[in-house]
Amino acid sequence: MRLIPFALLLVASSLQAATAPATADSAALYQQHCQSCHGLERLGGAGPALLPESLSRLKPAEAHQVIRDGRPASQMAAYGALLDETQIAGLVDYLYQPAAQPPTWQAADIRASQRLLVDPQTLKDTPQHGADPLNLFVVVEAGNHHVRILDGDRFEELARFPSHFALHGGPKFSPDGRFVYFASRDGWVSVYDLHNLTMVAETRAGLNTRNLAVSNDGRWVLVGNYLPGNLVLLDARDLSLVKIIDARGQDGTPSRVSAVYTAPPRDSFVVALKDVQEVWELSYAGEPDFQPRRIVARDFLDDFSFTPDYRHLLATSRKAHGGQVIDLDAGKPVADIELPGMPHLGSGIYWKVDGRWVFATPNVSKGLISVIDLQTWKLIKEIPTEGPGFFMRSHANSPYAWTDVFFGPNQEAVHVIDKQKLEVAHTLRPMPGKNAAHVEFTRDGKHLLLSVWDSDGALIVIDAQTLKEVKRIPMNKPSGKYNVGNKIEYAEGTSH
Ligand code: DHE
């Protein structure tokens, strides 16, 4: 998917907010009031990192308000009584400026950050909660930086615990579904034991992280970073550092890492680079050396999806005004797919129509779902929606694919698409006026959980056949939720 315009939108809107220029006083104010929580070099501590890279999603006007009024339900205090408006505006300007010395995060920093949070001897090897371990849901409650574990049969909560600030992307699971791995935007990687409902270990793998992947043999965690631009390989048992792999193109150009995924049938990690036109494949079969196999792409890559056999990957291409298809076996791009708007191929899903695989992708700039034939790479259908969308989900046992209307005035709507007719069959508005978004099915596909992204939002359980609401669990911006069984089986219709 080509995500730049959305990111640019955030940055562009942030540039419109007026700020007073930072002065020498601003740096001193930072040291006096902020440094103890946000770190000496703004790298983060008890509070999040405050580097420009970390703040790209927060408008300066919002930062100003948080400094003045504090942030509810967090340790961020209000400084309005201590600092005047000009001092706050100068401080905000200071935070959005690059650090005088480019920040570094090296092997010694990663090693020093690693913490074991439980004595492994005390952990039991069987589930201690009485629920079906393969039908648990891991729910990220973004509004208050917590995670909930739900029993996917009874939709009851088994555990709730605080996460690092701003988890992002899908958590990933060990092959047996026992351990779940989280990444925060500030680079913290944590592993949680779903049998014992306890956090096991954490390590800060970078300063600004994209996402992580877990190898299909459960031995390795690979973390993709924007800052520093690298891949960090961790031992999946305790998150100790194994190796740092600099992200550089074959001509030495440094790059950020857009995304990393595991490709189970290939026993490899596949990595998209953001600033050089290369895809990397790193095998973890046998005794791996994690040397990247480089595939030259036709364009820069952001997030991407695999075809069902993991032979091809589909990524957005601005040059092709749509998507590029890369053949991992042949090691080269094989097709361009012309698509309108800004397709979000990383969120696409596949299913069969008349025995042929199709791939459907939402579009972050146009109200439509593009459906592509995976044999011919041709666009076969455009399904109109009420506005641009972000996520898509289905299940092999469901006749429907679900997609949101994430952007624009109709963001309360969610479309239910008939997978065979390739048309919207139903449009639901689960909480009028509030953003209905991300969906995930139970392991058997009989129910689905839908997020309403609002501080006064909810996780809504829906019967996948009748589309009737079964249960509503109030939550503060539940972002993604992930079913253990679907994830470890890399099930059709869910994210991988
Ligand atoms: Fe995400 C997944 C990139 C903004 C919520 N998002 C991903 C992944 C990538 C990505 C590469 C896949 C990671 C994985 O699952 O391993 N996201 C980006 C961006 O580049 C972008 C547009 C801008 C940015 O600053 O990063 C972006 N993402 C957002 C949001 O604003 C969202 C809506 C709220 C948030 O939490 O920040 C958001 N992204 C999500 C979620 C997933 C995700 C919930 C997991 C989807 C899944 O079902 O697996």
Automatic annotation (TrEMBL):
Keywords: Heme, Iron, Metal-binding, Signal. Gene3D superfamilies: C-terminal (heme d1) domain of cytochrome cd1-nitrite reductase (2.140.10.20), Cytochrome c-like domain (1.10.760.10). Residues 1-17 form the signal peptide. The keyword Iron applies. Residues 21-99 form the Cytochrome c domain. This is Cytochrome c. It comes from Pseudomonas fluvialis.
